[in-house]
Design a protein that fits this description.
Structural class: mainly alpha
Order of helices and strands: HHHHHHHHH
Radius of gyration: 17 Å
InterPro entries: Haem_Oase-like, Haem_Oase-like_multi-hlx
Largest sheet: none
Protein name: Heme oxygenase
CATH class: Mainly Alpha
CATH architecture: Up-down Bundle
Pfam families: Heme_oxygenase
Shape: globular
CATH topology: Heme Oxygenase, Chain A
Length: 201
Amino acid sequence: MTSFGTAVRPALSERLRRETSAQHERMHSLMAKGNPFASRESYAGFVAAQYLFQRDIEHLFADNDVRTAVPDLEVRGRQAASLADLADLQSPVPLDTLASSGVCMPEALGWLYVSEGSTLGAAFLFKEAQAQLGLSAEFGARNLAAYPQGRAQAWRNFVASLDSDLLAADSHDAVIAGAHAAYERFAQLLERFFKLRVVPC
């Protein structure tokens, strides 16, 4: 509380962390069930999910409002890296409709939050891909490698964009809704490519 008795509004990044924690834990559970590092074939399923999700994410980069909100978009996104990894693994490029079609600001920031958070957290996955499957940032595991400026700095820059005063407080709920939608999309992709559920024909 302030000295005038007015509640301090939590930062958007803090709200996102708190209000999507259940979805974040769901991702950990799906990854454990999918066991992507059991074999290169299993890992290729993860990369296929990653490719489609990153295609959804990079579709948002063309939005001028998104580019204004996150000025360093050119260093983000892993669609090309995922595509190259699929080629390395001799795995087919999956087809799907674009899930982020029609998504715009401010919901788009929620989608980016999920993608950027996964990049930050991919350090462990990258080590596993190296140790268990013999992959690297030059072969098969490009999509898990750090951005050139490093994971921590890239994340700090993104959080600064989220918590900027340029983003109206009354748009925060929409950003969080976007994050929920993005988590659900990625969960569905993991379930599909890890074969954890039956996909209708």
